[in-house]
Amino acid sequence: MNKAQFIEKVAESTGLSKRDSAIVVNACIDALTDGIVEDGTVSLVNFGSFHVVQRAARKARNLTTGEEITVPSRRVPTFKPSRQLKDMVHG
Question: What is the pTM of this model?
Answer without folding.
Answer: 0.78
